[in-house]
Amino acid sequence: MTGPLPAPGLPALLNGPTRPGVYRLPPADSPAHIAAAAAEADWRVARLRLEGVQDKTSFLERCAAELDLPEWFGRNWDALADCLMDLSWWRETGKFRGYLLIAEDWDAFAAAAPGAARTAESVLADAVDFWADREAPLTVLLS
């Protein structure tokens, strides 16, 4: 189960003391505010807007569109895992301190498709674990 972002919150995540993970976005923080703060701290940010997503197929389609996944993305769980463990498609020129994925409207998606949400969360957690001890870790915030 995903827990809340530990205190002191976003600053500790972006600057090191808080380990990368899959966390709940603090209710007082908006995704736009979080994305701006992360970008300012030299993190690469992607927002995954899940409004209206009701099932696995629409979740994977939204991932492809919102995250601008590579053409080889096969629109299945294994292909999503492959993309999240090879972030070459997400990198730009320059170095980032980390990668932050903000999944918005997660609760509505989880209510509409609990099985797909559990699987998606597992794929996200595996990717976070893969990148956790690397120079530029991946963290996921669910809102």
TrEMBL record:
Coiled coil: none
SUPFAM superfamilies attached to this UniProt entry: Barstar-related (SSF52038)
InterPro entries given in the database record: Barstar, Barstar-like_sf
Segments forming domain Barstar (barnase inhibitor): 43-142
Residues that span the membrane, as ranges: none
Family to which this protein belongs: Belongs to the barstar family.
Protein name per Swiss-Prot or TrEMBL: Barstar family protein
Native species: Streptomyces morookaense
